[in-house]
What does this fold into?
Amino acid sequence: MYQKMSELPQLDTRAVQKAVYQNKVAHHFNVTDVDLEFLLLYGEVGEAVEAYHKKSREELAAELADVAIYLLGMAEILEIDLGAAVNKKMAYNRIRKDHEN
It folds into this structure.
């Protein structure tokens, strides 16, 4: 697979985060209550599990997209560059021992 850190693909999600946030604002969706966003995200994960068990790839893809949209929106609300955080975590995961969390 990837032998060196420089070979890892770098995720750049800032534009997507901003687009998700702007869509939330345009539709008057929540952009202030982070606890609510976590609850809604939890619901979307549950819907993804249901779609997985129904073996509906199309429905599962849509629910996973919803999960990603909530994560990206929360990251933008909280001013976190999710792509940078994922890249950092992936770099850590490449060197960590299997039994670490």
In short: The helical segments are 14-26, 34-54, 57-77, 82-95.
